[in-house]
Amino acid sequence: MPKRTDISSVLVIGSGPIVIGQAAEFDYSGTQACRVLREEGVRVILVNSNPATIMTDPGFADQTYIEPITTEVLEAIIAKEKPDAILPTLGGQTALNAAMALHSEGILEKYGIELIGADFDAIQRGEDRQIFKDLVLECGADVARSHIATTVEDAKKFAQDLGYPLVIRPSYTMGGLGSGFAHDEPELIRMVSDGLHNSPTTEVLLEESILGWKEYELEMMRDGADNTVVVCSIENVDPVGVHTGDSITVAPALTLTDREYQKLRDIGIAIIRAVGVDTGGCNIQFAVDPKTGRIIVIEMNPRVSRSSALASKATGFPIAKIAAKLALGYRLDEIPNDITRVTPASFEPTLDYVVVKVPRFAFEKFPLADRTLTTTMKSVGEAMALGRNFTQALNKALRSLEQRGSSFHWGEQPLGAEELIAQSVRPTDGRIVTVQQALRQGATVEQMHAATGIDPWFLDQIQLINEVAAEVAAEPELTPAVMTYGKQHGLSDAQMASLRGMTEPELRALRHGMGIRPVFKTVDTCGGEFPAETPYHYSSYDQVSEVVPSNRQKVVILGSGPNRIGQGIEFDYSCVHAAFALREAGYETIMVNCNPETVSTDYDTSDRLYFEPLTLEDVLEIVHQESAAGELLGVLVQLGGQTALGLAEGLKAAGVPILGTTPEAIDTAEERGSFARILDEAGLVAPRNGVATHFGEALQIAEDIGFPVLVRPSYVLGGRGMEIVYDPASLEDYFSRIEEFAIVGPDAPLLVDRFLDDAVEIDVDAVFDGETLYIGGVMEHIEEAGIHSGDSSCTLPPVTLGREVVQAVCDGVEKLARGIGVRGLINVQFAVAAGVLYVLEANPRASRTVPFVSKALGIQLARAAALVMAGVSIADLITQGVLPEQDGRHVPASSPVSVKEAVLPFKRFRTPAGDIVDSILGPEMRSTGEVMGIAPSFPEAFAKSQEAAYGGVPRSGTVFVSVADRDKRSVILPILRLSQLGFTLIATEGTAETLARYGISARVIRKHTEVGSDSDGPSIVDLIHAGEIDMVINTPRGRSARADGYEIRTATVAADKALFTTIAQLGAAVASLEFTPENPSVTSLQDYEKARSQ
Known about the structure:
Helix content is 36%, strand content 19%. The protein has 38 helices and 38 strands. A seven-stranded antiparallel β-sheet has the order 14-13-10-11-12-15-16, with helices on both faces. A seven-stranded antiparallel β-sheet has the order 31-30-27-28-29-32-33, sandwiched between helices. A hairpin with a 4-residue loop joins strand 27 (760-768) and strand 28 (773-784). Helix 7 (152-162) crosses helix 8 (185-198) and helix 26 packs antiparallel against helix 27.
């Protein structure tokens, strides 16, 4: 069936901001889809609120709308652009739910638009729990016994039939939000209440418990002619009970017999037919009872899912790309395989290697959170590794996490086998290492299987790694045979060095002296049956390398590794732009990364892709391989965040050329003494500060400077370990809390700064070529200093900074760039306090805000930076049209205003008692993603950013106000305006008294901690829980009165209500109430660009 001729324009709905459960996988799949549709001559209209993704760059669609993904906005875009069809299956649950809403409200029918990829009925059959259950039974497969509840009372009745523990799954949610196991009635009531709240259809499925069963997934595709392929089978190492996104997974499935696999395949094909997915991909999850072999179907996603990105990268089969072609009417047998170029997409991929994915967690950002893994996803990223066997792939994947203690070790272990077995019963982020340690201490495979439910085969493989390590340690001499044996099972140089009592460089020199180096194999989708045209490689200690030598001039780009809070896809964005720009400039681009979710690890982003851990050992081997032929111009380390920067010193020491800013210059910016000299020479000032390596030193400095102080470790990203400390006791507590993470010590000192209260923070991104500084943009933070720049709303152009301040800031950046010796990107943070401009920090690397700046002002900053690092001057870039003549110093008054807002994951993290963790923002970054609002004025842009981040500021209802004394004067005007707009006001006694003096009436409510009898009425927390409060304004009061604020804020987050913790943010929100979301004005980035160039 050839391509449909009746579709000439398609609206692609993106997935919105990066959140836990819906991350960069959809950035990758949506980007692929946009590229394919345009190659097919289709006009692409894209809507997505996420500025960090490369998908929302103007080059990927004909019309790009960075707008909230709401029904009103989508209708406005549809009315303006008149697309023939909507593709909703590549934007995760967000896009699917948005498409369902357009159908339900009659908008698709009104404009005569069809859904492609999956129609309304197929989505409903796959997503509606009861309909799907009936379908599965009709297909002759089995499901868990279950009931649908729409009220808590229903749920209590059904629980009596199913018995405890039971599973709770809300409908139409992502990342298992609101799901989990209820072990008793109080847990059931809390979880069902949450689940009903999180489900757009207010329904939850209650299921019999299948805890401890084995879990599998099939990634499948089907076309309009009923051709169906299983792209990949995936097996979870953890049994049922841990969300598949939080489990270590392997591909292909390793513990199924062929008969069992064929049975899953038959069930999968029957279900995809019954559901009616006939132009795209889907993912089906199964559970198998290890005792009886009973198979039940858990759920199906009738769309490209989180696992689709993993399956694509694991096999080389581009699921999203093929799904887009199927949606246009092609059959699988009409689509050629990009990698072999001779086989069609109807050939199922064959793997002659093992793939292991491991999740990356961020519990260190939420110290109070319960680390137990459940069916609600908590991981923020993942790493993937390929190897010739499971042990090799597992060890490579674990070292790809870049987390202390994430790899297997054989050092001192104070705990015995019994204690470790008991610890391993509870699934946590570090359980795999606990299992390895228990087996090392004498636990048996049978004992570990009974404790964890992990299949004995996997446990036996971990035991094998222990045996290999024991052999490496025990051999009298480290012979080539022993060295190779350790390497074939994935042991790193660092691990083998510690086993032999050597240093890592000594062991590496010994290995190289023996001539033992890895070879690089190819991912070819066909197990070597046909030659691969696309160079996509992984390392192995085998005999023959499959890399074809090249004589071109090469640049190696180091990616940013697994996503984490503080280092997300914003860095991948810069890496991808570098790959595109340098390839166009005639260089051979070589990408190194281990993150399966990203565009950088797509096989056609660079000339070559190495899917490898970002450790010094692994990168040096790739550099050696690529240096064998052609000329290696150098390695780019500035774009991949702290991961890539951390390798600069080691690479330089090994004689590898570093492009752009030198490692010495990077150190100059980090090291306090040398940075202070640069500030002095430039005539710039920093807040009073000092450097400490232990508590005594830090206390002395803090007392000299005066509390409060800002403490932050050096060489970290995302404000890791950064806090405002108010007194000596808090400082002592801080040191005890960070001890286990080893982020402060003689080699990594703690920076202690005077904390600037009531300051305005400014962020600048710029490119410097050694002669000319090109300002990308000057951003003004909406929250005051003290909140991490990644969590703060910010506006571009700045709305309250005078021209003199902006000029002083730009002059300061130029002096710093010259002083440090920058060649490429630099990000500088300033604060203005009491009329004085302070430099907070300077980072000579790509920053988190590069994509936002690029989209707000239409400046391709990352692209320009890559070319500058390769030796092109800024003057030449302006002549070539890569950069506009006017940089971001002066933004014309007619330009649109852009607002970036952070999206925070507090709802995902609960304390062991089941309460949500505190949602107060501080200097350590906690957001997982961001959205952008762009409009002609600041209030409208801010309104759009709030709408995109959490559904927007309420237009009416009840507002609760409780502010610190220092904020009582500045809160008056915003509250007066809310009162005039008809909001009902409730306040605590002190705040109500202040408001009354200004003639603003507010009902007094008792604080949560003010114990009162029932006759005293409910507390504020009771009212929030009861759904009677629509907006909460609660500014924290230093260290004191924490308990009340904590309870109020956590209750607000749990209830999904608007929460403002700074007056600056509240002022912006109140101004934005003038704009109604019912009639949104929408403008594409391309139209803004046209207006700029006129």
